[in-house]
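Lecture 7, part 2: worked example. A protein chain together with NAP.
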Amino acid sequence: MSKILVTGATGSVGRHVVSSLAEAGLEVRALVRDPGRAALPEGVEVARGDLSSPSTLEPALRDVESVYLMWPRLPVQPGVVDAIARHARRVVYLSTDVPDLEDGEQPTIFHQEIERQIRKSGLRWTFLRPIDFATNTLGWADQVRQGVVRWPYGQASRSLIHERDIAAVAVHVLTSAGHDRAGYVLTGPESLTHAEQVRIIGEAIGREVRWEDLPPETAREQLTAAWGDAEFVAARLKAWAGFVDSPERVTDTVERLLGRPARTFRSWAEEHADDFR
Ligand SMILES: NC(=O)c1ccc[n+]([C@@H]2O[C@H](COP(=O)([O-])OP(=O)(O)OC[C@H]3O[C@@H](n4cnc5c(N)ncnc54)[C@H](OP(=O)(O)O)[C@@H]3O)[C@@H](O)[C@H]2O)c1
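Predicted complex, written out as structure tokens:
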């Protein structure tokens, strides 16, 4: 097997993709912006590059067969997929739970635009479409430390996935055949309400953490001030409201691909307990 380039190699998923590939003795190269801060496992080849500047990727892509591609908060750069297609044969893209675009349909989110570029590129591709990362609950860490989480829609049920399961699927797809043109919707093994997630985090850190339902309009003001994107906040609030009556779906994709159940949110919370202490 030839070399695999991992982008977002210091990110929550990419870091595990790099370490799993390296542990398996595979040839991996990690793309980072600042090698001095990357803190990747010893012996991993590191290449400097910036996804906002496609020409910086050329040296990193040399002799690469496959690419694990993630896209950070950046305007989409068409040159990136083109550069990958000039060097590699296959890309595994960390997308999100989006439908395939119909012919002529316009993307509504950057992930659809990147998926569209990849489909047109001639690369062999697989799209990983996780719905909701367990790491999102780290946003509650300050409130957990105060002993009470005030957030909207305590009864909204979400199917959070452990970042290591996304990485494990990425590694499986990068190292085995039969995944071309697949879009894998990835979730955790169960759907848990926001309030249940907070209770489980409290159990993992060994102290009671209360849930307090924040009225949606108060949440809208606070989250817009914190996140600076009213449209995104509105979309989140609408989605969470919907998950009260219709829990976020749970897929068996992780288990089907890996031959073992997806990790639970409890195991995630226990692993991340120190982040909440
Ligand atoms: N959170 C969710 O629930 C969810 C659900 C579905 C999909 N997703 C998608 O998952 C992706 C995030 O993945 P993640 O959590 O593994 O990453 P992450 O933890 O957010 O880390 C971001 C990564 O992007 C890198 N990066 C930032 N700007 C860069 C640039 N200009 N050039 C090259 N690298 C750059 C960072 O590297 P540096 O070390 O250089 O900063 C870091 O490795 C996003 O596309 C998001 O939409 C998230």
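Residues 8-14, 32-34, 50-52, 70-72, 74, 94, 96, 130, 132-133, 136 surround NAP (CB under 6 Å). The chain has two domains: 3-130, 134-160+189-248+263-276. Keep this in mind for problem set question 3.
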